[in-house]
Amino acid sequence: MLYPLTFEPIFKDKIWGGQKIKTILGKDFPQGPDGLLPNCGETWEISGVAGEVSEVKEGSLKGKSLQELLAQYKEQLVGEHVYKQYGDRFPLLVKFIDANEDLSIQVHPNDKLAHERHQSFGKTEMWYIIQADPGSSLISGFNREVSREEYIDAVQNNTLTDILNREPVEAGDVFFLPAGRVHTIGKGLLLAEIQQTSDITYRIYDFDRVDDKGQKRELHTEQAVDAIDYKHYDQYKTSYERKRNQSVNAVTSDYFVTNVLNFDQEVMHDYTHLDSFVILVCVGGAVTIQAEGGYNVPLKLGECALIPAAVKQVTLVPDGDMTLLESYVP
Predict the structure, then answer these.
(1) Phosphomannose isomerase type I catalytic domain: which residues (predicted)?
(2) How many CB atoms lie within 10 A of CB 232?
(3) What is the pTM of this model?
(4) Do residue 66 and residue 210 come from a single domain?
């Protein structure tokens, strides 16, 4: 019988990472050959990426990989239309990201380009800001209309940041980033990321930094040119109404829908109308997920659960004030 599933996090050492995965989210980095992982930039919480597949943390399915579950349970795990569309590829990837320094300026290809070049999905994503140091910001898109030629000149002349849109950021902000949007996560931000299952990133500019061996990281400036959306948009931050004890939609896309749930009272969620799994990401406080069969799954800040499509009802019991991201495939 399927039940709300939690998974072992996959830790990622990054040149720009810090310590908030441990100090704020309470996750202990695994011991490496030199002691603790020095700069944990990301944890992959629910992943079907080849070579980086999540394993179940608790219950009768403990130790099973997400890939094994999908092969065994198919539509029961992900929903009929999701399985028909994606088959044995789990469509979403959930991460927590700690930017102790600015990430590289980058862009992700859309489905068409990613399939042609990499036999992969493209990468549309969203960010929910969990914590922001004072003065933190991020880059999303351009600050004016830019031509392909202007962009190439800016990269060659090292003036790229002059034409990019920088946004001040605070906790609770949401940013939706369709494939093709140039972006970077700024120093001092801790966030949750929900994205298509893809690890394709074109790095455009990396602030000339070097690793511990004195090497600069690879850039993909030529590959990025065909992937970029050069349009200017009036609004880059996602507008949503923050309400207590209501489910508020923040993002609706072809790849995922994400609602923000800020509750301080018990609530029952009926997923009978959905033909999809649901992912719950705790971005504030703590909650217990109750499901049929006597399942009680506690989640605290920095933890996630996958509600299989076969589980049609859950009761969320907050421990005080809690905030969840609720995502599914439309």
Answers:
(1) 8-119
(2) 14
(3) 0.95
(4) yes
